[in-house]
Amino acid sequence: MSPATLLAVPRTPGAGTPPPAPRPLLPLGVAVVRGPSMRPTLWAGDRLLVRYGSAVRPGRVVVARFADGAVVVKRADRRAGDGWWLLSDDPDADGVVDSRHRGPVPEDRVLGVVVARVWPRPRRL
Q1: Which domains does the chain show, CATH number per domain?
Q2: Which residues are bridge partners to 101 per DSSP?
Q3: 16-50: pLDDT as tens digits
């Protein structure tokens, strides 16, 4: 390979950093809660209606992707630079991981805002 060819190869930002999550084609989707981190607001198995690409505000429940690729349901606590500080409603639950452990989540990794729980007890969030 010539040096010119090597310069033409695009570089990825940060080794091991997964690419930003693609935005869904439809603005609405369903997410399923796994684990106890959002109790008492949400319980494992709850089905949520999510509006993708919606503006995030403090206090809203969101679906986000951590840097390791894990998709999570958390509460947007506050803006932290160009990202969001996301917290669990039950920080003492077993295995809870949120921004206290991972730091702020970049804006483009907050996938959507939870509009409502649709099953088993429908209600707006």
Answers
A1: 27-124 (2.10.109.10)
A2: none
A3: 666 666 655 669 999 999 999 999 999 999 999 99
